[in-house]
Automatic annotation (TrEMBL):
<keyword id="KW-0274">FAD</keyword>
<feature type="binding site">
    <location>
        <begin position="146"/>
        <end position="148"/>
    </location>
    <ligand>
        <name>FAD</name>
    </ligand>
</feature>
<dbReference type="Pfam" id="PF02852">
    <property type="entry name" value="Pyr_redox_dim"/>
</dbReference>
<dbReference type="GO" id="GO:0050660">
    <property type="term" value="F:flavin adenine dinucleotide binding"/>
</dbReference>
<dbReference type="InterPro" id="IPR004099">
    <property type="entry name" value="Pyr_nucl-diS_OxRdtase_dimer"/>
</dbReference>
<feature type="disulfide bond" description="Redox-active">
    <location>
        <begin position="44"/>
        <end position="49"/>
    </location>
</feature>
<dbReference type="InterPro" id="IPR016156">
    <property type="entry name" value="FAD/NAD-linked_Rdtase_dimer_sf"/>
</dbReference>
<feature type="binding site">
    <location>
        <position position="53"/>
    </location>
    <ligand>
        <name>FAD</name>
    </ligand>
</feature>
<feature type="binding site">
    <location>
        <position position="269"/>
    </location>
    <ligand>
        <name>NAD(+)</name>
    </ligand>
</feature>
<feature type="domain" description="Pyridine nucleotide-disulphide oxidoreductase dimerisation">
    <location>
        <begin position="358"/>
        <end position="463"/>
    </location>
</feature>
<dbReference type="InterPro" id="IPR023753">
    <property type="entry name" value="FAD/NAD-binding_dom"/>
</dbReference>
<dbReference type="InterPro" id="IPR036188">
    <property type="entry name" value="FAD/NAD-bd_sf"/>
</dbReference>
<keyword id="KW-0285">Flavoprotein</keyword>
<feature type="binding site">
    <location>
        <begin position="183"/>
        <end position="190"/>
    </location>
    <ligand>
        <name>NAD(+)</name>
    </ligand>
</feature>
<keyword id="KW-0520">NAD</keyword>
<feature type="domain" description="FAD/NAD(P)-binding">
    <location>
        <begin position="8"/>
        <end position="320"/>
    </location>
</feature>
<keyword id="KW-0547">Nucleotide-binding</keyword>
Length: 472
């Protein structure tokens, strides 16, 4: 066993979130060791955000051209799956993390490759691939940025089969003739559309509706689009058992139905990756690990942090990176003795937006872009909330596509007259989202928002229509 080396902060997991914590603490003058057992850059770069969006984008572009007379006539071919897969692979750098490794070095962060376990208070042991071991002691903090793990439902027969998770679906080298997608959340729905547009016959099996955390009108637009392009979406459908027959997956669904497909993607959610890290031995319950607004794990002695997917607050890259900035700064401030156990809301140390202003985009075609709370969530939180919604039908949207179909909603706190939630659904609405995020985070009063004039003729004019309908 090697001697323990000392550093200020040890970060376990070099995904987008771990990298950002490390970058931040080093910028503040601390030393950091970043530990990674797989690819530096994590899930988002190699098996999630980037490859899934790269698989979706060509279909969206083609559909956008088909939506405009004059351009439509120029679309005479179909998608080239091999080119799409090749472009996807270029976004993952062929699953090679050399450039990320270079960034880590250039940022002054020490990188250790291997599997880390927490072996004591502020102590981490790293098992390297060659069997050797290194040990570190952190003067200030150990940060769990270990991501999340797919949650696989206990369906009869499933555990023994070679089903896909999102990892295999985002890194596949060929397009299967048919694909069954279990789970109607954002991962399942995005990948269902991507593969359908690449030529697979796709069936989505959802135990309730699809995209159930978004307003029904918004998810309804996506459902109509998916069905319109030939994807079978089975809603309110239980999956009872799965088996393989002649190399094909056969799923027993609903009351006596079956779905047969060459590949099965299980996309039924993810949970924080907190097991196998030695936490039990320290008397901590892995399933109960949750970072507070500064990332600190309460009741762990003031040195253990959990952020990003591992922190159990929000499972999105941009939000995890935001948490990382707050946590990095909180660790540095605590090291300097300028921050106590808790941080004030909206201070540079508290990821307050996690609770009230999370922006999220479903990158299907049409897209859903939402920030903050739905009407139901706001009312559940005790907000005296109203909603105003309408179809997106402005000059900008009709120019965008000949049959543009969209929907928009604002949720207003009637006591303070500020927005607490905004949803847009429709082709390419994701670029409208940051305007809404600024309005929600800035708590911009409606009487002032009324002076934010959308340029003509853009899709943003929907803001004006919403405020007019609200009564401005
Ligand atoms: C299909 C799919 C598409 C997605 N699309 C989007 C999107 O478009 N936009 C968006 O915002 N979010 C998206 N997400 C969510 C996003 O991928 C995650 O929120 C994000 O990757 C979390 O980053 P992280 O750094 O917390 O974890 P990860 O990226 O998972 O990084 C954790 C790292 O820790 C390492 N690790 C774990 N344990 C150890 C250990 N003991 N020792 C050493 N290393 C360890 C792992 O190898 C991994 O590299 C998507 C997710 C999926 C599944
Ligand atoms: N565009 C994006 O930002 C993006 C894209 C993909 C994934 N992600 C993130 O990745 C994470 C994982 O995505 P996900 O779609 O797997 O999770 P999710 O939690 O969004 O959706 C999981 C879905 O599976 C369903 N489900 C669970 N158990 C089931 C069962 N036994 N049978 C049938 N359905 C079942 C749930 O009802 C839910 O609809 C999410 O947190 C998401 O935020 C984000």
């Amino acid at each position: 066993m090697s001697e323990s080396k000392t550093t200020d902060v040890i970060i376990i997991g070099a995904g987008a979130v771990g990298e950002n914590v490390a970058g931040r603490v080093v910028q503040k003058g601390l030393t950091a060791v970043l530990v990674e057992s797989d690819l530096v850059g994590g899930e988002c770069s190699y098996w999630a955000c980037m490859p899934s969006k790269a698989l979706l984008r060509p279909g969206t572009v083609l559909n956008a051209a088909r939506a405009v007379a004059g351009a439509r006539e120029a679309v005479t071919g179909t998608i080239d799956p091999q080119q799409v897969l090749a472009r996807r692979t270029s976004f993952t750098s062929g699953w090679d993390d050399a450039s990320q490794e270079e960034w880590v070095a250039s940022a002054g962060i020490a990188l250790e490759r291997g599997w880390a376990t927490v072996t004591g208070e502020r102590e981490v042991s790293i098992r390297h691939k060659d069997g050797s071991e290194s040990r570190y002691r952190a003067a200030h903090a150990v940060v769990l940025a270990t991501g999340s793990t797919p949650t696989i439902p206990p369906i009869e027969g499933l555990a023994d089969l070679d089903y896909w998770t999102t990892r295999e679906a985002t890194s596949a080298e060929t397009v299967p003739a048919s694909l069954a997608v279990l789970g109607g959340g954002v991962a399942g729905v995005e990948l269902a559309q991507a593969y359908a547009r690449l030529g697979a016959e796709v069936t989505v099996i959802a135990r309730s509706g699809i995209l159930g955390t978004y307003p029904a009108e918004a998810s309804g637009l996506v459902l109509t689009a998916l069905r319109g392009e030939g994807i079978a979406v089975l809603t309110d459908t239980a999956t009872n058992a799965v088996r393989k027959v002649d190399g094909m997956f056969v799923l027993d669904v609903g009351d006596g139905g079956t779905v047969t497909a060459e590949r099965l993607l299980v996309s039924t959610g993810r949970h924080p990756h907190t097991t196998g890290l030695g936490l039990e031995e320290l008397g901590l319950e892995p399933k109960k690990i949750r970072g507070d607004a500064t990332g600190l794990v309460p009741d762990a002695g003031g040195w253990l942090y959990a952020v990003g997917d591992a922190g159990g607050r929000v499972q999105l890259t941009h939000q995890g990176k935001y948490e990382a900035r707050m946590t990095g700064d909180a660790i540095a401030a605590r090291a300097a003795g300028t921050l106590g156990a808790t941080a004030e809301d909206w201070s540079p140390y508290a990821a307050t937006a996690d609770d009230v202003a999370v922006p999220q985009v479903v990158f299907t075609d049409p897209e859903i872009a939402m920030v903050g709370r739905t009407l139901e969530q706001a009312r559940k939180d005790g907000v005296n909330a109203s909603e105003t919604s309408l179809p997106i039908a402005v000059a900008g949207s009709s120019l965008h596509g000949d049959d543009y179909s969209g929907w928009a909603q604002i949720v207003v706190d009637e006591d303070s007259k500020v927005l607490v939630g905004v949803t847009f659904a429709g082709p390419e609405v994701s670029e409208l989202l940051h305007s809404a995020t600024i309005a929600v985070v800035g708590e911009v009063p409606l009487h002032r928002l009324w002076h934010a004039v959308p340029a003509y003729p853009t899709v943003s004019e929907v803001w004006l229509r919403l405020l007019e309908k609200y009564g401005m």
